[in-house]
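Run log, item B.
One chain of 348 residues. Sequence copied directly from the ordering sheet:
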Amino acid sequence: MRRTLGATFVSLSLNGALGTLEAQIPKLRVLDSIALEESGNRFIARAAALSVSGDGSIFVSDNSNKFVLSYTRGGRFIRQFGKRGSGPGELESAVQIALDGDSLLVVNNQSRLRLDAYDVKTGAHRFGVALPRRASTITASGGILRASSVAMGDRASMVQVNRGRGTPVIQGPLPELLQRFPILAGPFGTVTHDARGDHIVSAFEVSDFVYFWDSRGKVDSVRVPVVQRRGAQQDLLQRAARDTSRGREALFRSSIPMAVAWIGDSAVAVVHGDVELKGNLFEGRFFLSVVHLRTRKVCADRVVPVPSDPFPRFAIRDGVLFALVQHVPDTGEPGTYVLKMPLAFSCA
């Protein structure tokens, strides 16, 4: 049964008070849970990324099995992309994924520093593009492939590749903390991005700001207030940069940006995770914030009701937050599910 989301965000001005009580910020509501079909050797062992197409088709990369599986909007299996190996069309890694319109699926074959593209309708391998370094997020649009990748030597955070022509373009802003302490780029260099035409938004592990920029070099930023999540622990990160023996102390202490996406022309949504490893299990919570560019208001830290282990994966499309989880629901069988949480809120 589908219901509308009746609760609203608490609106937080950048210049306003941040003393909002946790009880005032309700959770998102799960309005649909889609069980992904599993049979034989076609199952998700270790999900690395989730993507959703315009028609609602679901794509999941599995870095354990080294392939990507696609499903209908109702969870029925459609086809497999790639397989384990190092030959043409084969994958040594299957981590981040991106859709270029309705025609191409792009996979970050991270171990080979390569993006591999497949035909969405047939599964056939179309081409591969080399990357100069490891990437933590990829997007694709109109043949332009972008990969988030902190490059301290170039003082940049993105590699842009035009399919089939030209050399990679290194661009994108870096937070001030990374510029001051380049050593942090290795252990704390998580960055995620989304592109809408020529406009790009990026979120970094070491910063509470989201950065808005374009290929012409114009950069803006808005701080996402820390209401419930941990945020970027600047003091702790600086201590770890000055004394590397304290790196373990800083591990999992800052909020990790897990997904960011445009919702319309003047707002973006960002998902942060506050997680830590206890024994062999991840424990923690996840939060959604929405940044409005025109008003520069932020709806901050709404709790996303998902289990923390195995690590969930997120995608945002057409005003809906999708979360891939593997668990035993209250009513149902253990398996892999995609939860849908519409962003039907007001933030006046």
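Observations after the first pass:
- Residues 174-208+218-310 form one domain.
- Confidence is low (pLDDT under 50) at residues 1-24.
Flagged for discussion on Thursday.
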